[in-house]
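Quick one:
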Amino acid sequence: MGLQFAFTAFVLGAASVLVFLLVVAVSGDPIGLDTERQTLRFSFAMVLLATAWLFRYREGWVLRFYVPAVLSVIAMSGVIVILLAVLTNNQELGQNVGLGRVSLAMVLVLWVSYGFQRLPVQFVTPALMLPSIFVVVHTWVTSDSVAALSITLYAIVAHAVGIILCMQTERRERAVFAHALELEQANAKIAAQAKHNQELSEAKSLVLASVSHDLRQPLSSLSLYVNMLRAEAKDPETAEIVRCADHMQTCVGAMEGNLSRILEISKAQTLGAGFPVSVVELANVFAGLHTIFAPAATAAGIELRFQDLVPGELMVTSNPERLHEVLSNLLSNAIKFANHDRRRRCWAHVGAIQTANGLRIDVRDNGIGIPTEHQDRVFNEYYQVGNPARKSTHGYGLGLSMVRSTIGRLPGHSLAMYSRPGKGSRFSVYAPQASAGTQTVPRKPASEPAATEDGEILVGSMVLIVEDDDSLRSALSDQLISWGAVVESAESCDEALEIARSCERLIDAVISDFKLPGEKNGIDVIRQVRQTQPHRVAALLTSGEYSFDRNLLKGMEEVRFLPKPIAPETLRTELTMTIRSSLASAAHLN
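Output:
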């Protein structure tokens, strides 16, 4: 701002001098056309233009040597003032020069100097006072009292106005500087906080990855051992063992669910990306919810109602899995927090209505409701109403937090809540409506039970287990042996390759953990084991990592991924299906 002002002032000053020079030349005034006068005027104009050029095209140099530049301008201003005074009072050169012209020129020079200097007024004023005092003294000595008094008054007024101008400029400069300093400090603080948050996020990701792996390993082992215990306890005398095993399996499921919810929230917060969407038919979603929650609602004495929808009647643009999870969470809360008042029957209703901007999917109940003072916080992580003891039967306070996070990552979706204590609650999910006739993506069933005859494929099959965790490797071996499979196990990639090369039988399937000791991982194990066999070996890849990239499996045929903890039913189903698919591919090739 200061450089632009200085550039403009010097250009205007040079233009004024050149115009005056041209006017004098046209007028033909013999005194004005004096060579010395014209040379002085032209030199003065060139100095002003050269200074303006520096301020315009050499900003870096001016800013680097700002103090010398300012002092030079002050000195030049003083020289100009003195020169004008001498020129005015010189008997030979200034006899026809008007006093008003010189006074006006001096005033303009002082104002430009005061306005340009971006230094405190206590530095600028003394520097400009010295040549002004010289002018006043010189005028009193060489001129009459009237002229001297006039110059003195002009100087006083010029300095007074200039000082005010300089103080205002300094005040503005200080305010701009203070604002820039605050902005810089705020930006630095924001950058430091962002860096700190990034470091915390990375540290949290590392901790979660370690926790996920370390907890899922024993959970997988425990789940397999509990399943074998239940399978062995068939006699009536072992009914108590079966009951304990059932409770243990319930605890394992609760631990797995809690861990999965924590990891899902962390992943959503870390990635922050939106979910892919497609056309979803609400009739299919409602049917899936009814299949899952009808038994629990009946057991709890709650009437579960679903709006009757004709296939193709209402469709939304959403993510089928995420929408199902959101509605499942809301419906689970409606059943969990029912108001079991004997004077009225408990109910929960799921329906949808068309709005001006799309569809509104409602999950309503006549349960206990949410007090007004808690309604703004129920979507916070781990926040629960009326559960100070943190009983697991009331959940973990993560459900609504996950709902809000999921809705926030679905394009065009929003969430609303209305609740009255003792009357019930209504949670509404707003979603874009899809046009009729669009191809829909059906909701995948929650689970696919294995066919009983599929288990016969495992009998006599040769399975190679590659797992570095001793307890899980042992549990997998025992479980597969109980299903009739022949099992070889290894701890590392090298040991697995040695078994594959020396084994007397062909290997039918490989179950490998992704993270193994050394530089090689489970994918490398599968590739190298397949190279030792004359046929395509079926493969299951397991992992306890919460952020496993499934794109790593692209291009690998007959490889299925199983996240830990591994449910026995899922293990049997997936292993059977991949072996069957591998055998079918081999038969096709033959």
